[in-house]
């Protein structure tokens, strides 16, 4: 079922975030921060869901152009698993305590203990979350 969105509300979101084709790493990081903020919320308005979809597409397009294929990082693997499992970044706090959000945001590195905890949580090898 497709929900209708308010043009006024969506217009206000577009005005606030001003999504556009990403051309620089700084723009990419800024839009990634908005994506992470929206993904951390427990519930989104339909207009926010549409904005999130647009921002994810813009980030994916930029990263596909500027980053080598198959070059993943522990953080990108973690974010991929979060997305694939339909989780929110905030859900990591249940696994990693207050470090979960910081690790997902790239502010903290994933250590051995965190890798083991994440491996158990996602039912994958802990090495997936460690730099090789």
Biggest sheet overview: none
Number of domains: 2
Indicate the overall shape. globular
Separation, N- and C-terminal Cα atoms: 44 Å
Mean pLDDT: 88
Question: Approximately how much beta-strand content do the residues carry?
Answer: under 5%
SSE pattern? HHHHHHH
Which class of secondary structure composition applies to the elements? mainly alpha
Helix content: 55-70%
The total of helices stands at 7
As residue ranges, the low-confidence spans are none
Radius of gyration: 16 Å
β-strand number: 0
Structure report:
This protein has 132 residues and is mostly helical. The protein has two domains: 60 residues; 56 residues, 434 Repressor (Amino-terminal Domain) (Orthogonal Bundle). It is 61% helix and 0% strand. The chain has seven helices and no strands. α1 runs parallel beside α3 and α2 runs antiparallel to α3. The relative contact order is 0.11. This is Transcriptional regulator. It comes from Phormidesmis priestleyi ULC007.
